[in-house]
Amino acid sequence: MTIKRNRHTKILATLGPSSDTKETLLNLVKAGMDNVRMNFSHGTHADHKRRFDMIREIEAETGRPIGIIADMQGPKLRVGHFKNKSISLTEGQNFTFDLNDAPGDETRVQLPHPEIINAVNIGDRLLMDDGKVRAIINDKGSDFLSVTIEAGTKLSNNKGVNVPNVELPIPALTEKDKIDLEAALDLGADWIAQSFVQRPEDVKEAQNLINGRAKLIVKLEKPSALEYLDEILELTDAVMVARGDLGVEIPPENVPAAQKRIIRACRALGKPVIVATQMLESMIEAPQPTRAEASDVATAIYDGADCVMLSAETAAGNYPIEAVSMMDRIATSVEQDDLYRKIMDADHPKTLGNNASDSITAAAYQVAMDVNAAAIVNYTTSGSTALRTARHRPTVPVLCLTESEQTARHLCLSYGVRPVVTIDVDNFDDMVSRASRIIRTKNLADKNDAIVITAGVPFGTPGSTNILRIASVE
Question: What residues does each domain of the chain span?
Answer without folding.
Answer: 10-75+172-340, 86-162, 356-472
